[in-house]
Design a protein that fits this description.
Length: 134
């Protein structure tokens, strides 16, 4: 299955269900990444996806009563990316980052951007890209 991740679709869905707040919140997070990364390399694609998808589980379209929005967001992100042919390692990375974004923002922890997985890490490895996020 070919990967079919469309940033415009993700942005539009974020705006549809999260409104202007959802868009501005994702953009704020993306502007914080270089500061939190503190010169370390990070996977731009995973960070961009996590910034936009990490609150989807709190939006009415995907929310589940009794389930924390960050846990639900991780599920929604995983399923959304799976439907679009996203590789398992990237799904796991985005899902993990989606789950932990809330805690990292509250505490100012930069370790969010260095969550390792068996085959991929947000901040290191051959797939890491450093630079300005779109």
């Amino acid at each position: 299955m070919a990967i079919n991740i469309n940033r415009d679709e993700i942005t539009q869905l974020t705006e549809k269900y999260g409104g202007n707040w959802g868009i501005k919140h994702a953009k704020r997070l993306l502007h914080m990444v270089p500061v939190l990364a503190d010169g370390r390399e990070y996977d731009e694609e995973a960070i961009w996806l996590a910034a936009y998808l990490h609150d989807w589980g709190g939006y009415a379209a995907w929310a589940k009563p009794g389930m924390e929005h960050y846990d639900r967001s991780a599920e929604v992100a995983r399923d959304f990316l799976a439907e679009r042919g996203c590789p398992d390692d990237l799904k796991a990375l985005v899902s993990s980052a989606s789950r932990f974004t809330t805690a990292a923002i509250r505490t100012g922890a930069s370790s969010l951007y260095c969550l390792p997985t068996p085959t991929r890490s947000i901040c290191s490895g051959s797939s890491a890209r450093r630079g300005r996020l779109r």
